[in-house]
Design goal:
Length: 536
């Protein structure tokens, strides 16, 4: 039957189309909610609604103390922490009796939406942060990669990438070349853009690596700005030679990656960076400490009074390199990262160093690539994109590995997963504390509940997980970000654009006493010596 083209008929047809479109949109939104990913008000979460919360009866844990108390939150800020807080009916009450109420985790080391090794990390600022929130991390600090060496262009690119953020974040800045323009841009980053740390690569020859002469100049600039110098510590020249050696031996699989950059090269570069930073007298932060060799250099430096921070990452603490020898390429390749995951024994030593305070905080170096991307290096390990997951798993794995085993206390757990990071990057006590006036970034952890890690259930976009099958105790049951409950009953309710950029001021506590040390050094020189010229 022919359909009439009368205006009434056309209007009716248009109404049906609009109704069908609306139904599809609602259905799609519901699917996101059912999957645990909420987008704004479609999942009952409003970006503009103010939230009043009372967390009742839990054990409140900070880095140096714990007490049974209630926590009252209003408009994203912790208002009060004390026992028996009374509230009205307009306040949402979360029962936490028998559970730990802690500051949300802060991950100091991530790479979201980063172009690297001919590919790009699979997690962007929404999926990566959503995964973090599901695991109890409420803030991270990501590394801005310059564009053609330009810091300003790099920051502009990352500002666009981060518009979809669903939790708070900050930025470090990588330095991939050195000249006067970069030096001036560093001043802008610190004085105007809220960035107080700069990362230098001693590895990746031919791309990111800078030599010792430039490293010295950069360290001096960091010191003058009150910014923290960070290093990826591997001897890039020796790694390059090691890679050539492996290829000549016909070792082209993932195991070649670990064999080409052994612990001694990490230890050497760590020692060199420490000595150069000591020569300049500026604090140093060594990222992703993966070996006994590097850890021992940090320990020696700290005992001598140098201001050196050592950051292990969770993969280095709990995994070993045996997976790199797996006969299945995809299985082996997912463990490729730099510096490499080390042989059994290194992880236990790093755990001990963390428990003794030789290493200060735990990051992830979350830098995810899927199986297809990893397969770019199926014939040559040098082409396998480097990186593993961890942003969602860190809080659970540190609890299970370090607290459940008795290696660290509950208060130490808060210190190494949140508070120390906030102190180092000068955002404490806004972050990293459960106290009046702090941001309401809070987790409720049940020490008697269990967890299991799987790529089928994680929130990262990666199709693999290097911690696949891990079962343990101590589960984050509630995550509160900016005063909003975003993780509850294993459901994630987040929406893009709700995260805030956190500016980080220069001259953290690590710079205390630097001026006095410089003055002491100058007074010790007993120079220049005044000499008399002999007369004839």
């Amino acid at each position: 039957m022919a359909y009439s083209s009368s205006p009434q008929r056309l209007l009716h047809l248009l109404s049906l189309i609009l109704l069908l479109f609306a139904f599809c949109s609602i259905s799609e939104s519901s699917q996101f909610c059912d999957a645990g990913f909420g987008y704004g008000e479609s999942c009952g979460v409003s970006s503009s609604s103010s939230t009043k919360l009372l967390i009742k009866g839990g054990t409140v844990v900070n880095a140096h103390e714990m007490e049974v108390a209630d926590v009252y939150v209003e408009d994203g800020i912790i208002v009060a922490v004390r026992p028996n807080i009374k509230v009205g009916d307009d306040v949402t009450v979360l029962e936490a009796t028998g559970k730990f109420v802690m500051p949300g985790g802060i991950d100091p080391h991530t790479h979201l939406d980063m172009e690297f090794m001919g590919s790009g990390t699979i997690d962007d600022f929404f999926s990566g942060q959503a995964a973090a929130l599901a695991g109890g991390t409420t803030m991270h600090i990501d590394f801005v990669i310059p564009v053609n060496g330009s810091l300003l262009s790099g920051l502009e690119a990352y500002e666009k990438k981060s518009k979809k953020s669903c939790m708070d974040y900050g930025f470090h800045m990588a330095i991939t070349k050195w000249d006067e323009v970069v030096s001036k841009e560093m001043e802008i980053m610190v004085n105007e853009k809220g960035i107080n740390s700069f990362k230098f690569f001693m590895a990746y020859k031919g791309s990111f690596m800078i030599n010792d002469e430039l490293l010295l100049q950069a360290f001096k600039k960091c010191k003058s700005l009150g910014a923290l110098a960070m290093v990826h510590a591997e001897n890039g020249d020796a790694v390059y030679e090691g890679q050539r050696r492996m290829i000549e031996l016909g070792i082209t699989g993932p195991e070649g990656h670990a064999l080409s950059r052994p612990p001694v090269l990490e230890g050497e570069a760590t020692a060199r960076a420490i000595k150069l930073a000591g020569f300049v007298n500026t604090p140093l932060y060594v990222v992703h400490v993966m070996s006994i060799d590097a850890m021992e250099e940090i320990s020696k430096a700290r005992k001598s009074g140098l201001k050196v921070i050592g950051e292990p990452v969770v993969s280095g603490l709990v995994l070993n390199d045996s997976w790199l020898w797996d006969p299945d390429f995809i299985t082996a390749a997912k463990y490729v990262m730099s510096p490499p995951i080390r042989a059994a024994g290194h992880g236990k030593a790093l755990q001990a160093a963390l428990s003794m305070g030789t290493l200060q905080l735990v990051g992830t170096d979350h830098c995810t690539f899927n199986s297809t991307q990893k397969a770019l290096g199926i014939d040559d390990f040098q082409k396998i994109p480097n990186g593993v997951n961890g942003i969602e798993e860190r809080m659970h794995l540190v609890w299970d590995t370090m607290v459940e085993s008795g290696q660290i206390s509950v208060t130490d757990y808060v210190r190494v997963t949140s508070t120390e990071c906030a102190r180092i990057f000068n955002i404490y006590p806004r972050k990293g504390a459960i106290r009046a006036g702090s941001d309401a970034d809070i987790i409720i952890l049940n020490p008697n509940s269990s967890f299991e890690i799987s790529a089928k259930s994680h929130h990262s976009r990666s199709d693999t997980n290097v911690y696949e099958g891990w079962r343990g105790k101590g589960k984050v049951e509630v995550t509160i970000s900016g005063g909003r409950v975003v993780w509850l009953n294993d459901e994630l309710k987040v929406f893009p654009g709700s995260g805030k950029y956190v500016e980080m001021r220069p001259f953290s506590y690590l710079f205390n006493g630097i001026g006095k040390a410089d003055a002491k050094y100058l007074s010790s020189l007993k120079a220049p010596v005044k000499r008399f010229r002999a007369t004839t």
